[in-house]
Design brief:
Blueprint (H helix, E strand, L loop, with lengths): L7 E2 L7 E2 L9 E5 L5 E5 L5 E3 L2 H9 L6 E3 L24 H7 L3 E5 L5 H9 L3 E5 L4 H15 L2 H22 L4 E6 L13 H5 L5 E3 L13 H5 L5 E6 L14 H4 L3 E5 H5 L5 H12 L8
Parallel strand pairs: 5-6, 5-7, 7-8, 9-10, 9-11, 11-12
Antiparallel strand pairs: 1-2, 3-4
Length: 295
Amino acid sequence: MFFAVAVFAGCRSNVSIPNTNAPATVAMRQVTDDLGRTVAVPVKITMVVSLAPNLTENIFAVGAGDRLVGVTTFCNYPEAAKSIAKIGDTMNPNMESIIALKPDVVFVSTASQIEAFMKTLEANKIAVYVTKADSLDALMKNLSDLGDIFGSKDISSKLISDLTTRINTIQKTAGDTRTRVFVQISKEPLFTIGNQSFLTTALGKAAAESVTRQVETAYPKLSKETALALDPEAIILSDSEDNREPNEVFKNSPAVKNGRVYKVNADLLSRPGPRLVDALEQIAKDLHPEKFPNK
């Protein structure tokens, strides 16, 4: 798939003439993914598959949405992503469907269980590019790398500049006094964010501090006893159908007693992409309304 061999036929006068029916040689180059792996990709990438909703959003954001030929069932933003062929979900993609699409590259996230299907794709000579957007800085790097891969550096550079300006404005306006918050990912069982989640450090830009910032892993499950001792000043709910009120364990917390419970669209909180900045703006305004009079 990666290289085509030009076939030359001999003719009279000992002059070699290229066979015009032979496939053209595909120009290749090497890029380095977030695991430090060297990945061979075409110089001009025309068909890709995304195995994570944030990667789909990021590819669209850098102006390469028209290159996507396959996405997961969870890829619902932007609107155009809904009409792209679905290849299963993030954790259990359909290998046959992906291989049939013949993509130049498959983009995956380290948040996915990638080990098993990476080997299958590479065995079929399909390049796999692994990303790891575990912080705001890593998100900006991912957008920059995608701009380089797709030849749209002008778009990605402007995007990064605009997002950085917005983040700096949020941080400057919100100030240095941080509110102790609990981010509730699900009510039952009680899941939150830990020290390996990109949200934990990103919250600082909105003058917020996660009360579970020291908990190991990205999205730990908490016992009621552990949660009871946290006593957050505010609670941020990842807004979904089964997570629209705080867990009962927080009923006597300052957050609930003072009515400081806020909902943020679950997709904005869970996907390290450009819309994460929308979430930070909302959180900063919810927590510090006096500093954002035009909320």
